[in-house]
Amino acid sequence: MRYPALLAFADILPDIDRFDTIIDARSEGEFALDHLPGAINCPVLNDEERVRVGTLYKQVGSFEAKKLGAVLVARNIARHLETQFADKGRDWKPLVYCWRGGNRSGSLAHILAKIGWPAIQLDGGYKAYRAHVSAALEAPPDLQWRVVCGTTGSGKSRLLETLDGIGAQVLDLERLAAHRGSVLGHLPHEPQPSQKRFETLIWDLLRHFDASRPVFVESESKKVGNLRVPDAVMERMRAAPCIALTLSRPNRVRLLMEDYEHFARDPCALNTQLDHLVQLHGRARIDAWHALANSGAMPELVDQLLVEHYDPAYLRSIDRNFAQVGQASVLELDDIGPQDFLQAARTLHEG
């Protein structure tokens, strides 16, 4: 094969995990929105430089813009060679891509190949990759889904985390979305990824799952915070067998107090989120919950939220959205310690 070789994503995919390095040559802003799994960002034009070149193109012309772009690209590639790639040996196998597989990745791949590395350039770039992901999520693989159901605070997320820790196959949508999936689910200091990034994370997990083994997932709604679960994945989940996780209400309150400790430290932030429930519960009820939060009566507030908001909402939606919940196998937790979740996880994983 002559290098740099220009290959389509369909040709690269079977061997994509064998590349030593996947290089995203786009700007840092483009990379942050989404990128190929495992890619590192080595911009040949950063965000500011892209603006400079684009402005020059519009205001002066393509020749002057290309001349400036060449200077910036050459400078940036030289820096990457002196830093990121300085320790790479003769047999290093990089895959390079940019937005559409054009000048940015082409320039970098050309120089890498001239040095002697077997560089591959992704034909069509990120745009071609993104088209593949979108199509794959419209027809996800036929997997043995097992849906963990249960009221808020019953420990579904902790059970999935424990299952993952003992080697089970888990699609933890809340972890991927950086959100706990309710009006209070925003995680402090951890913004949600973009929708495209969320879908990349889902696709990358699905493609590695073994279809002969079960895949555990939580009974999510269509949206996790601001992110939407792909429709076809949602349909497969909703048609799957269910596991009903049960935990006493006092223990559910304890678990939620642990998981939402940040709200106990910042009742103003909690009250801001509770205001989103005014249309459902009325101003008087929300004001009463505000008073509990402000006085530090968090266990009482959590208990009321379970009884008056979360449990009724769960019961209204679960039967309607998950076809096999009526035949769910019951898994009861006695307490919320690590050993309780480990025992429950082993029961599912080994059963």
Report on the architecture of this protein:
This protein is of the alpha/beta class and 351 residues long. It starts with a strand and ends with a helix. Strand 2 (21-24), helix 2 (28-33) and strand 3 form a beta-alpha-beta unit. It is 53% helix and 14% strand. Helix 6 packs across helix 9 (195-208) and helix 11 (249-259) packs across helix 15. It has two domains: 5-135, Oxidized Rhodanese, domain 1, CATH 3.40.250; 139-350, Rossmann fold. The model has no long low-confidence stretch (mean pLDDT 95). The protein has 16 helices and twelve strands. It has a five-stranded parallel β-sheet. Strands 7-8-6-11-12 form a five-stranded parallel β-sheet, with helices on both faces. A two-stranded antiparallel ribbon has the order 9-10.
Topology (elements, then pairings):
Layout: E1 5-7, H1 9-12, E2 21-24, H2 28-33, E3 40-41, H3 47-59, H4 62-82, E4 94-97, H5 103-115, E5 120-122, H6 125-138, E6 144-149, H7 156-165, E7 169-171, H8 173-177, H9 195-208, E8 214-218, E9 223-224, E10 227-228, H10 231-238, E11 241-246, H11 249-259, H12 261-265, H13 267-274, H14 278-295, H15 298-321, E12 324-332, H16 338-350
Helix pairs in contact: 3-4, 6-9, 7-16, 11-15, 13-14, 14-15
The appropriate CATH architecture of the largest domain is 3-Layer(aba) Sandwich
State the major sheet: 5 strands, parallel
What is the overall silhouette? Answer: elongated
Name of the level-1 CATH class of the largest domain: Alpha Beta
Q: Using the CA coordinates, give the radius of gyration.
A: 25 Å
Order of helices and strands: EHEHEHHEHEHEHEHHEEEHEHHHHHEH
Q: Could you say how many structural domains there are in total?
A: 2
CATH topology of the largest domain: Rossmann fold
User: Which percent band covers the strand fraction?
Assistant: 5-15%
Low-confidence stretches: none
Q: Please report the total strand number as a whole number.
A: 12
Specify the structural class.
alpha/beta
Mean pLDDT over the full residue set: 95
